[in-house]
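Could someone model FE2/S2 (inorganic) cluster with this protein?
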Amino acid sequence: MDRRTFMRTAATGCSLSAWWALSACASVPTLSPTVEAGRVRVARVDVQAAFGAGSALLLQSDTLPESIYVLRDDNDTYTAVSATCTHLGCQVRPANNFLRCPCHGSSFTFDGGVVRGPATQPLPRYRLDLVGEHIVIELP
Ligand code: FES
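Reply:
Sure, complex below.
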């Protein structure tokens, strides 16, 4: 499935969801990368297009061990962190330069650090490298 087809499919799925889910879908751009040899490899042009003006991009795929956020700061530096809250496993969401958990209110910095509990452990980080025209994320 190419990126355009995926984005169309995701938009259709969101439109069939409840209103709150629709709001959430609209606010976080998502890509569905393939995993090869324990790595995610995505063209930078696709990542930048998916980000738009935002600073968070969610990677979701059946081939990933979990959903991963790629986060971009003001200097175009990228970070990859788990999207799974370390408290009880809900998916965190970007909000005002933090990742917040909708279940019990934990907050994390874009590099995974805990700002507010009940979570006590940081979001696991993934190694991310810029290799030529691609972003490569190493999976454990
Ligand atoms: S699951 Fe995230 S704060 Fe409880």
